[in-house]
Write a structure and sequence with these properties.
2 domains; transmembrane helix; elongated; membrane; transmembrane; single chain; about 250 residues
């Protein structure tokens, strides 16, 4: 199961039955409202004669949405945080046309906002305030408990989990999804030699290195040499759980 889905599955398991059903109902309601508002926006678009201010906004918003969509698709298409950043502009564009549709969907808009609030609050925000349901925290428990200041941790868990390791451990961290400047053969060799010659301390390698969760195919190809160079370094398995395997060099 992809790590992103694992994190959501972990949160879902922490919810009671009534919370799960309420979240599902809120998602269904917000989806229906979104469809209704989109239809009204299309009606407004067909009826609209844009004034200069509205035209200026669209000249800015539409190219920005296109550029970001292309970038997200090529760089990290599975990174939901990138796509969330586009929502405010999408909402503004929709409202621009909704207000010109001849309808006043106050009730639909209000229900949409409230349903989103309840669904996100119960299904995401509140569960992640508890460490017992925080995926990035519980999936890296081994490193948090056992990594020392002189150790190297080599991971591929992505920037969010890496930030947890920066915060909760004193070890030196290398995340293959974020390492720059070691893609050429000589740079990879120098970097691997640095790993091999590391003293004192251990070198701990996570299985997430070989299946990075937040890496697009373009990014993955860029780091192929790094990943291949690390495969022979998996010497002794020291830990395994549902989230990852850890080897010690």
């Amino acid at each position: 199961m992809h790590n992103y889905l694992k994190s959501k599955h972990n949160i879902a398991q922490s919810l009671s039955t009534w919370q799960l059903w309420l979240c599902l109902i809120m998602v269904a309601i917000s989806s229906i409202c979104a469809v209704i508002l989109s239809i009204i926006a299309v009606i407004g678009y067909r009826r609209t004669e844009l004034n200069p201010r509205a035209t200026g906004f669209l000249i800015f918003a539409v190219p920005m949405l296109c550029v970001y969509a292309i970038f997200n698709t090529l760089w990290e298409p599975l990174n939901i945080e990138f796509w969330i950043a586009l929502l405010p502009f999408i909402y503004l564009v929709l409202m621009l046309f909704i207000t010109r549709s001849g309808f006043t969907p106050f009730a639909t808009s209000s229900i949409f906002v409230v349903a989103l609030l309840i669904g996100n609050l119960l299904g995401s925000i509140l569960p992640q305030t508890d460490r017992n349901t925080d995926y990035c925290y519980i999936s890296n428990q081994y490193f948090m408990r056992h990594a020392q200041a002189n150790d190297y941790i080599i991971t591929g868990c992505g920037y969010m989990c890496s930030n947890y390791l920066y915060l909760y451990t004193d070890a030196t961290l290398f995340d293959v999804t974020q390492i720059e400047g070691i893609r050429h053969d000589s740079s990879v060799t120098n970097w691997v030699n640095r790993i091999l010659n590391h003293q004192p301390g251990r070198v701990l390698i996570s299985s997430t290195v070989f299946d990075p969760p937040s890496m697009s195919e373009i990014n993955r190809r860029s780091y192929e040499k790094v990943i291949e160079a690390l495969k022979p370094l998996r010497k002794s398995q020291v830990y395994v759980d549902d989230f990852q395997v850890v080897w010690e060099l």
